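Please go through the sequence line and token line underneath and see whether the fold suits the sequence. See right below:
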Amino acid sequence: MSSVKRQRQGRDELDAVDRRILSALHANARLTNQELAERVGLSPSPCWNRVKRLEANGTIERYTAVIDQAALGLNDIVFIEVTLQQHDERVLQEFGSELARIPEVLEAHLVTGEYDYLVKVAVAGTSDYERFLRERLYRIDGIRHTRTTFSLRALKRAVSVDPLAIG
């Protein structure tokens, strides 16, 4: 059983206070416990206990800084559709493991439809994209076909969903 499935089985239902905590942390994960408690209408100790429970049961997976790729010289985002030659479990596992090791890969999804994977990659431009293909992606065995779309502009960027926005 995957760690995600194990975590989900141990999660309690989220009540309104949990959702307020998650929403506040979604907006600003650097809030102190005191600030968070004030925003959600709790005293600090129960707030701390709830956050610790949400971390322990996997509802809060991790905390991270969202970095502007352009500040790193990676001005473009490309979406690469990948079709594999074979679809057995070993091939899928190896391909996924190889993708996970490539630093420019921001996301990789096994998908339904005409292709097998949708991969989101940060690159510095078209020549860097060509380098990425030759030196990184095409060195992974088992690729039959790829198709790429360059993003012109991000209309929305989010790491997760705001729990209060979905009901």
Notes: Residues 1-10 have pLDDT under 50 and may be disordered.
